[in-house]
Structures are given as C-alpha cells and as structure tokens.
Task: structure prediction
Amino acid sequence: MTRALALVLALLPALALAVDLSKTQRAEIEARIKPYSQSCAAGDASCSGAAAQPEVAAARSGEDVYNAACMACHTTGAAGAPMLGDVDAWAARMEKGIEALYASGVNGVAGTGMIARGGCMDCSDEEIHAAVDYMVNSSQ
Ligand code: HEC
Result:
C-alpha cells in the first residue's frame, strides 16, 4: 500500500508535465490549423476582413497605391511630405538611393508624419516599392 502510494506520488510530476505539454501542444496545433479552418466563399456574409481576401491578390500598380494611400500627404505636402512633382525635393531624397526610399516607404520615417507603408497595412512590399517608383518617376 505504502509502496503503491509512493509510486503514484513519484509519478505525479511526470503526469502533470504530460498534461501540461499536451495543453500547450493543443494550443499550438489549434493556432496552426486555424487559418485553414476558416474557409468561406467570396461574398459569404460570414467572411470578414483578411480571411475573405483571395490568397493571391493581383498587385496594384504604383499609381493605384499612390492614389489610395499616399496622395493624402504627398499631393498636399502635409506634415512636410515631399510633394509629387517636386523635382528638387525628390532629387535630394534620391541622393540616398532608391533602396533607402523603398525602406522609408515600407518602414516609415521615424519621428515624422511618414508612417509605415503610408498607413496601407494591406499593401505588399512590392506595391509600396511600385508607389515609390511612381512618385520618383513623376518627380523628375
Ligand atoms: C500621413 C501622411 C503621409 C502618408 C499617407 C504617406 N507619406 Fe510618405 N512621407 C510623409 C512625410 C511627412 C514625409 C517626409 C518625412 C521626412 O521628414 O523625411 C514622407 C516621406 C516619404 C518618402 C521619402 C523618405 C525618405 O527617406 O526620404 C517616401 C519614399 C515616401 N514618403 C513614400 C510614401 C508612400 C509610398 C506612401 C503611400 C504608400 C506614403 N509615403 C504615404 C508623409 C506621408
């Protein structure tokens, strides 16, 4: 009797660990399969937000992205944004190289009104790069 009790007591931590592990694993597995369990047809009212987006959306052109996300500041010069068509302002920026400007488009410019992706959080890096190209090419 005492030996059996001792055995159970000795095994308890191992049992607790096993339960703990499987809980963690369960959570991980649930998180992993979640994206696939949320399937829905386009236009379905139960689809919302990113889940409703087709997996491979056609990339928008630089001009489209500019008009949708960048124009608000870069057409008006709001908060000191270099304006579209301002050759001097963009020439000065271009001295840093196009890669630096791409990085500013994607990451924003810390401490300024230039927020990451110009606020277009569903824009891909490529779409932001295209918008930067459009702005630079329209300002030479
Ligand atoms: C909320 C206003 C705002 C929006 C929206 C905005 N910008 Fe800007 N942007 C700024 C400001 C302000 C600056 C100047 C930052 C500075 O002082 O260097 C700037 C600067 C830039 C620069 C130059 C950065 C550098 O390193 O010299 C690029 C490139 C740029 N924006 C790209 C974009 C693109 C692409 C979009 C749209 C996807 C966008 N911006 C949307 C405000 C904005």
About this structure: The chain has a mean pLDDT of 84. Residues 11-52 form one domain. The pocket of heme C is lined by residues 65, 69-70, 72-74, 78-82, 93, 96, 100-101, 104-105, 109, 112-115, 117-120, 128, 131-132 (CB under 6 Å).
